[in-house]
């Protein structure tokens, strides 16, 4: 069993690449998730651009009445990282005995890691949506009529000055395209 550490090293190397490729090829992750892989040399640094470079205020006559604004530069943050592991008892024994090959074993492990991270991202997005204050005008609960939905989309688009992306379950989003009687 001297070869086991080498087998685990190979599995880990392949998973680093295949899992990250799965996210890079997924349109949701490409557009909405900024992911980093520290094992591949990425830095755990996320830069937040300030939006306070220029402010506009009412001018009441002379330059003595203007407020000075402190310009705050970019903010760099690092996020907490976590370690995850996979239980592969039965599958690993099947690999050792030759019942499955290493490709099948790595595929199963990779699928479970991707599924786990997908679940964590989904929970984070749902938590973000539930934390939007109702008073903001960007939150809605209950049965939604198309007119209400159009109004909500217009409010979000106007405030963000960007196109709106609607996310939800496949069934819920499909109902947006179906005319109501």
Order of strands, widest sheet: 1-2
Uncertain residue segments: none
Largest sheet: 2 strands, antiparallel
The percent range for helix content is 40-55%
Beta-strand residue percentage: under 5%
How many domain modules? Answer: 2
Provide the structure class.
Answer: mainly alpha
Mean pLDDT: 78
The H/E string reads HHEEHHHH
Q: Choose one word for the global shape.
A: flat
| C-alpha end-to-end distance | 68 Å
Counted by DSSP, the helix tally is: 6
Descriptive notes:
The protein is mainly α and 181 residues long. It folds into two domains: 4-131, no CATH class; 134-181, no CATH class. The chain is 48% helix and 3% strand. It has a two-stranded antiparallel ribbon with strand order 1-2. Helix 1 crosses helix 4 (102-130). The longest helix is centred in the middle third of the chain and has 29 residues, at 102-130.
Please name the defining characteristics of this protein.
single chain, 181 residues, mainly alpha, 2 domains, two-stranded antiparallel ribbon, flat
Short description:
With 181 residues, the protein is mostly helical. Helices cover 48% and strands 3% of the residues.
Q: What does the secondary structure layout of this molecule look like, with pairings?
A:
Elements: H1 4-24, H2 27-32, E1 46-48, E2 75-77, H3 89-96, H4 102-130, H5 146-160, H6 170-177
Antiparallel strand pairs: 1-2
Helix pairs in contact: 1-4
């Amino acid at each position: 069993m001297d070869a086991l550490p080498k087998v685990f090293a190979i599995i880990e190397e392949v998973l680093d690449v295949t899992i990250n490729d799965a996210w890079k090829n997924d349109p949701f992750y490409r557009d909405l998730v900024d992911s980093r892989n520290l094992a591949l040399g990425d830095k755990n640094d996320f830069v937040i651009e300030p939006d306070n470079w220029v402010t506009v205020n009412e001018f009441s006559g002379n330059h003595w009445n203007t407020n000075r604004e402190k310009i705050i530069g970019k903010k760099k943050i690092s996020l907490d990282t976590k370690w995850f592991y996979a239980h592969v008892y039965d599958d690993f024994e099947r690999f050792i005995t030759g019942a499955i090959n290493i490709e099948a074993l790595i595929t199963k492990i990779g699928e479970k890691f991707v599924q786990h991270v997908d679940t964590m991202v989904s929970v984070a997005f749902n938590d973000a949506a539930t934390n939007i204050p109702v008073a903001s005008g960007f939150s809605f609960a209950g049965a939604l009529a198309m007119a209400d939905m159009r109004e909500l989309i217009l409010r979000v688009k106007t405030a963000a000055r960007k196109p709106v992306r609607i996310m939800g379950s496949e069934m819920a989003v499909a109902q947006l395209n179906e005319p109501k009687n």
